[in-house]
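Field reference: sequence -> structure
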Amino acid sequence: MVAGHGYAAAMLDSKILVLNGPNLNLLGIREPDVYGADTLADIIEDLRAYALSHNCELRHLQSNSEGALIDAIQESMGWADGVVFNPGGYTHTSVALRDAVAGSGLPVVETHLSNTQAREDFRHRSVIAGECIGVVSGFGSDSYRIALTGLLGYLRRIDS
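Structure field:
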């Protein structure tokens, strides 16, 4: 059963990994003028409720470690239908995460709270985005819901 909701996990249509990279554990504290006042726990709690209303199970992992993020992507190949991924600072530097996304065969939506194109020049390029079905950025905590909505729509289209 999904905790507190009375739904059997097996009855849920989609299983999605929500993966968050370095420093996202500091949301609500770190640069709230850029990233907002919501904590990561707040964002995930809201996203879980939204997911359940769309018959979707979420599993979440946040790590500051590149290797743990790669492991999570690889492990999700055995159970997930797709991934909502905020790679944080690794967005711009991690060929290893790019290769993990490419090798997984899973649809991935890269997600950012801030509009990376309106920030420092080094944030304008993602090495991961080219392996994703889409990118959502700049909508604060709503970016996660928008990314999940897009991912679920994509999964419905490829299943029909």
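Note: Residues 1-10 have pLDDT under 50 and may be disordered.
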